[in-house]
DNA sequence: GTGTTTTCGTAACGGTGTTGTAATACGCTG
DNA sequence: CAGCGTATTACAACACCGTTACGAAAACAC
């Protein structure tokens, strides 16, 4: 009927791959559609016909990053010690973030900054912490965590601590004379220990 | 000697104030120097003679935000229960972040994104967690925390958990069926409890 | 060979931060 | 009081961005 399509799946992958490379080592802000199109020897129109907009391109990149992240966390196989599984998931979390800081930044970027089109759909990052919830649930059944709190709550606290310490490092807000790397695991273990006997045993009940 | 200066301290404050207002409710990305200059009825040159660049302006804004943040955390007066002081500092942390999300975002933004000029100097955010370290130190003396870890390490874990949970909320990565608001304090208390008896009492020593 | 239709590259639009340049407005001098 | 010197400012140009309108290109139908 008309001229043959060159904005096909192959070009889509090439664009995605090149964009991933740029974002990987220079960040999402350093990604220019003009430069990207020139690198892949096409025009900016290709990005718009294949991804809709720059936000759409970043959204596809986001999907890919989340997939890798979920794979990395799911690769932590359960052992007979669920509490230790939680720690190892936390370590894998940190490992991924340190290895791919810019992809990690895309994962946890502000909602407003990115994906203004499909902001209705929930972000899939939250799906990646399912293995953590499962580990906590197994730990509760094994008596390693108190049953006073839902496993989701305990998992969220671990998730928050991992994300917080990793974010401090990646954003350059690490205390100067104190390396997070050296106490990350100890902090996680302290938290796990704190959930053991149910919360609020020592300092609880005062406020709230 | 020449025409009178209008790019003086007064204009500097007006620019800073107007920029703060814009950043406060629309974020740093929505701040345009042209719009800012028009609002204050001057030219963009004023920003460059007073702040050097947009990054310089944001850096001044950063200083201001850090000052407010430090004030808010220092306003938590020590009581006879240091462990509870730690919790209350954590709650104040969250309160500030939720009340001023965009200022909080400036505080913990990527180093690369912002302040490319004065990136040599250490960031002052780390200074704001001094009250937390002090509270932990008092708690150790009172026997509420184990002495196996430096107070800086314990404080950093609390700092990380607060920052992590708050960041998850602000970036829109909160689990859908689970409000952080409802378990934030419980998580902090669990962590404090976990540091009580020295770390690693239950799940320790397995890895590492 | 002409028409039609789909597709794509180019160029333009409105916007940004930044910088070069020319006009301004005063103090000093004659 | 006129005019110069100069510090200081406003304006316009520059290079770049994401996005979009539009005309050219290409393959099929007749």
From TrEMBL, chains A, B:
Gene3D superfamilies the record matches: Tetracycline Repressor, domain 2
GO molecular function, one term: DNA-binding transcription factor activity
Keywords: DNA-binding, Transcription, Transcription regulation
Matches recorded under InterPro entries: Homeodomain-like_sf, HTH-type_TetR-like_transc_reg, HTH_TetR, MT1864/Rv1816-like_C, Tet_transcr_reg_TetR-rel_C_sf
DNA-binding span(s): 32-51
Location of the HTH tetR-type domain: 9-69
SUPFAM superfamilies: Homeodomain-like, Tetracyclin repressor-like, C-terminal domain
Pfam families hit by this protein: TetR_C_33 (PF13305), TetR_N (PF00440)
PANTHER family for the chain: HTH-TYPE TRANSCRIPTIONAL REGULATOR RUTR (PTHR30055), POSSIBLE TRANSCRIPTIONAL REGULATORY PROTEIN (PROBABLY TETR-FAMILY) (PTHR30055:SF209)
Protein name, UniProt field: TetR family transcriptional regulator
Organism: Streptomyces caeruleatus
């Amino acid at each position: 009927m008309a001229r043959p399509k060159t904005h096909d799946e192959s070009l889509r992958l090439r664009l995605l791959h090149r964009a991933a490379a740029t974002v990987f080592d220079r960040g999402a802000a350093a990604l220019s559609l003009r430069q990207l199109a020139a690198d892949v020897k096409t025009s900016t129109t290709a990005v718009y016909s294949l991804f809709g907009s720059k936000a759409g391109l970043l959204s596809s990149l986001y999907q890919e990053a989340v997939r890798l992240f979920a794979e990395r966390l799911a690769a932590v196989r359960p052992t007979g010690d669920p509490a230790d599984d939680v720690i190892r998931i936390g370590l894998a979390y940190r490992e991924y973030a340190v290895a791919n800081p810019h992809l990690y930044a895309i994962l946890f970027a502000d909602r407003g900054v990115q994906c203004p089109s499909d902001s209705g759909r929930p972000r899939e990052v939250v799906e990646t912490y399912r293995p953590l919830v499962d580990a906590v649930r197994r730990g509760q059944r094994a008596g390693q965590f108190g049953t006073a709190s839902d496993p989701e709550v305990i998992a969220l606290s671990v998730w928050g601590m991992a994300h917080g310490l990793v974010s401090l490092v990646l954003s350059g807000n690490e205390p100067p004379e104190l390396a997070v790397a050296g106490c990350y695991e100890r902090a996680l273990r302290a938290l796990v220990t704190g959930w053991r006997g149910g919360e609020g045993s020592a300092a609880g009940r005062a406020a709230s």
